[in-house]
Prior knowledge:
Helix content is about 30%, strand content about 35%. The protein is of the alpha+beta class. The protein has one domain. Strands 1-6-7-12-11 form a 5-stranded mixed barrel. A 4-stranded antiparallel beta sheet has the order 5-4-10-9, with no helix packed on it. Strands 2-3 form a two-stranded antiparallel sheet. A hairpin with a 2-residue loop joins strand 11 (about 200-210) and strand 12. Helix 1 (about 5-35) runs antiparallel to helix 3 (about 230-260). The longest helix has about 35 residues, at about 5-35. The radius of gyration is 24 Å and the shape is flat.
Amino acid sequence: MHPIQIVAILLIIAGPFCIFYIRPKMNNRVTEMKFMQTKTIAELRKMFAQMGENGLQDSYREYVELKGSAVCDQPVETPFSNQQAVYCESQLSQVTEQRERYRDSDGHWQERMVRRENIISNEKSSQYISMKDSSGDEKVVLEINAPGCSLDVPQTFDRFEPRGNLSRYRFFNSFSFGGYGADTLGFRMKEKIIRQNQQLYVLGEAYLSGDEIHVSAPNDKKQPFLVTTKSEDDMVKSNERNSQVALIGGIVSVVLGVLIFFL
Length: 263
């Protein structure tokens, strides 16, 4: 089979996948956000107390929508920007530049300099974060590293630094550059953080672990587990746009695939 026909078949397959899998997934998330009633942490505690009176407290789980703020008794310090945060994802990439030979359109060998970024570390500060709301001082634990969690955290730091400038960062004080080679131009540093008292919007399944209320991925895999710093309105609008893009993209993909295959 000709490579062009293979591309056409892949486009034809991708279209229905966008229309009948990705789009319904986006629509389901929009429905959950639009029609769920926000619960307070105090209401959750009362609900579990009532379940306890009926002997169901340990096994009871409920899918909930929560709004509150991220809190932490001992904030972490981010490795590159040295900010205080409840949660941090950091990524360090080595930036290299190497001479590469290639054939041009006339079949002649040429040389060019190629820059690449290779990720050498990708760290997360914790598996959980805590959240509280205006209903009281009690916190709930968000299991953000649970399988299926959609954690939407803003990127707050993205910087490339040449090797000669790295001494300004404490992170590199004990860093050995010997093994990275002369072609290393420097390093790109990225951070995504959740700050103390930053507002969170959460969809997930609440349950009791000991005396703590935890929120994690639902047993029903069709229900999303979402933790984001965006507002509910922003998330609804974003998912509605993604749904439309999936529909239009799916249709275009099928049409292009058919045209390519038969032309």
